[in-house]
Amino acid sequence: MIVCSCNVFSDTQVRDACASTAGVTSPGQVYRCLGCSPQCGRCARTIRAILDEVQAHSCAECPTVCPAASLSTRMLAAE
Ligand code: FES
After folding, report:
1. pLDDT at position 22, please?
2. Can you say whether the dihedral through the CA atoms of 27, 30, 36, 42 is positive or negative?
3. Ligand 1 close to Cβ of residue 38 (< 6 A)
């Protein structure tokens, strides 16, 4: 599905950018990763939702490897 009609990229490309580049956590980083920049900005919320979904999914599948998950574990242990 096309997510950004201005730059013509899909949700699959957003997911691939997340998977192939560590630290992609914002729509701005996705644009840069895909070699473009925001034009109208209408897609930013959708990109944000995809990023949240990818991050939640990856942490559920790799709780001992995901840096975000291990950080959460350390923070809970410190409390
Ligand atoms: S739809 Fe993505 S910048 Fe316009």
Report:
1. 74
2. negative
3. yes
